[in-house]
Design brief:
CATH architecture of the largest domain: 3-Layer(bba) Sandwich
Largest sheet: 8 strands, mixed
CATH class of the largest domain: Alpha Beta
Number of strands: 19
Shape: elongated
Strand content: 25-35%
Radius of gyration: 21 Å
Helix content: 25-40%
Bound molecules: flavin-adenine dinucleotide
């Protein structure tokens, strides 16, 4: 392929597709170049909790709120069946003797209220109504965040890809980017396994690969990579999705345990402890199955274990844990977009970066998330 386009986006995960979709909607022709398949990276191995609940720094919280607004707007435009959006709410709870304490809940309530994030206190009887299969124990109380939910992220990615093509763009799969045309500060395009693509603007949205591709763009042997890869392990119990109605955070203090129903009828679980058992999948499955059994008392442990599967995903993780979105230092036409919580953030990052690339004023929402807070070379 020898092609010419306004913009090349590297990476067909949710972030790259959201950016290409927003650019296409603003009249910019786009080619998305993907080394594997659409949504074949972290976008398919994520827990996909849509939330601003767990993001208490105000600027990062606001960016996540914008992401969730974007998901609601896409769901009302295309239908939530098409976008895979489930606005189920999220329940967080604690009891008198749990590792997360009732005081912790109160602090979270105060903090979210200060941020104007919808959140309500839930007493014991209401907890049982909301999630009748959980054994809450005596004296439990909860917080309900009604705007939270979860996403079938691969489904949304496929829909965005189809819409990009409908608007005249293209997605090239199995076409790794192996180099760049021209030299910084003004690059002329990318070199792919299928040939060169000439472009006015280049966006690197390659998830955990972003640091390596930025180093390639800067042609620097000394390049620094302020983006790491933070592995996580999720366990799914087949056929158990009906145990829960929403995303639930269980009261395990620092060892956060969260569960939700999943597409296909399973129950998806993740915990900080299982993230540390990546090399022993059976142990991780046993560990999470036992923890599920603790909260769903009438389960048969052996049966549950037999129905579990595990999968490992790699979170793109900026060095300070916060999104990196904007112009790559040292380049005039290369942008970077990489973040944890990318499922929540994709619609906001897509729209805000597309505004900037097409010459609209930069949003103050991105002010604290610029690439130039890090050294890249
Ligand atoms: C266990 C786990 C739990 C998570 N939980 C949540 C959560 O609850 N809520 C939330 O919002 N987020 C969550 N995340 C994070 C979220 O999934 C990611 O932030 C998001 O999926 C990143 O999307 P992306 O498009 O940046 O990356 P990806 O989906 O990885 O897409 C990047 C793409 O770039 C491609 N690429 C790389 N190098 C090249 C190259 N040289 N040429 C061409 N293409 C290339 C890759 O193949 C890949 O398809 C979680 C992640 C994990 C692993």
């Amino acid at each position: 392929m020898t092609e010419r386009t306004d913009c090349v986006v590297i990476g067909a995960g949710l972030i790259g597709l959201a950016i290409a979709h927003a650019l296409s909607g603003r009249g910019t022709s786009c080619r998305v170049i993907e080394r594997g398949r659409i949504a074949g990276g972290t976008t398919s191995t994520t827990f996909a909790w849509l939330n601003a609940t767990s993001k208490l720094q105000e600027d990062y919280h606001r960016l996540n709120v914008a992401g969730m607004e974007g998901h609601r707007s896409w769901a009302s435009r295309w239908g939530s069946d098409v976008t895979g959006h489930r606005q189920t709410g999220c329940l967080m709870w604690a009891g008198p003797d749990t590792a997360t304490t009732l005081d912790d809940l109160e602090r979270i309530f105060d903090h979210l209220s200060c941020l104007d994030y919808p959140c309500s206190r839930v007493g014991g009887p209401e907890l049982a109504d909301l999630e009748p299969r959980i054994s809450f124990g005596h004296g439990a109380e909860g917080l309900l965040m009604p705007l939270d939910g979860w996403l079938d992220a691969p489904r949304l990615a496929r829909h965005l890809a189809e819409d990009i093509v409908r608007q005249g763009g293209a997605i090239h799969e199995e076409a790794p980017v192996t180099g760049f045309l021209g030299t910084a500060p003004l690059l002329a395009g990318v070199v792919t396994a299928d040939g060169p693509v000439h472009a006015e603007t280049i966006v690197i949205a390659a998830g955990t690969g972003t640091g390596d591709i930025a180093a390639m763009a800067l042609r620097s042997r000394e390049a620094l990579r302020p983006v790491g890869s933070d592995p996580g392990l999720l366990v799914e119990i087949a056929g158990a999705g009906a145990w829960l109605n929403r995303v639930v955070c269980f009261p395990e203090g620092d060892d956060e345990l969260h569960m939700r129903p999943n597409v296909g009828g399973g129950l998806l679980m993740g915990a900080d402890a299982s993230d540390r058992m990546l090399s022993d999948e059976v142990r991780a499955r046993r560990h999470l199955a036992a923890r599920a059994q603790h909260y769903f008392a009438r389960l048969d442990a052996a049966d549950v274990m037999a129905r579990t599967t595990a999968r490992v995903g790699h979170r793109p993780m900026p060095a300070d844990g916060r999104s990196i979105v904007g112009l790559l230092p040292g380049c005039d036409n290369v942008f970077v977009a990489v973040t944890h919580s990318g499922v929540t953030l994709a619609p906001a990052i897509g729209a805000l970066l597309a505004d900037e690339i097409t010459g609209r004023p930069a949003s103050p929402l991105l002010q604290e998330f610029r690439p130039d807070r890090f050294a890249w070379t």
